[in-house]
Amino acid sequence: MASGIFHRKRHKLKSEINVVPYIDVMLVLLVIFMVTAPLLTLSVDVKLPSSTAKALDSKQEPIIVIAYPDGRFGLQLPGDKQPRQVDEAGLATLLAPIREQQGNDLRVLLAGDGEAPYQRVIDATEALKKAKVTNVVLWTKQ
Predict the structure, then answer these.
(1) Which of 28, 64, 96, 137 is the most buried (most CB within 10 A)?
(2) Is the dihedral of CA 122, 124, 126, 128 positive or negative?
(3) CB distance 108 to 63 below 8 Å
(4) How many structural domains is the chain composed of?
C-alpha cells in the first residue's frame, strides 16, 4: 500500500454579510427622497379674510384701532381725519377714560394691517382688555 494519505483541506467558513442588496435599497431610497424633497411645502401664504356683511348702523362713530406690522398702533377717535400713533400702553391709557364716559355703548373696530402678523392684533386686544373695552369688532376688507 502506498503511503498516499489524502489530506483534505478544510475550508474556513466566511462570516461576511453580502452588502450589495443593502446598497441597492439605499440608492432607491436616496432617489425617492431626492424626488420628494422639493415637493414639500415649507410655508403657507395666508390671506386676510374679507366680508360682505354690512356695517351696523349706530348713532355714534366707532373708535378705530389699527395694528401695524412694526409694532405701532393707530388710534382714530371720532372726528379725527388720520389715526394717531400710539404704543400698547398709550392705547389702554387713552381708551380707559372714554370707556368710563360712554360705558358699554363704546364700539371699537380693530383692524390689522395686511402686512402685520396676527400677534399684533392679539396685542391690540390685550390693550383693549386692559382698558375694559368689551364691545370690539374685527374689521375686515369689504
Answers:
(1) 64
(2) negative
(3) yes
(4) 1
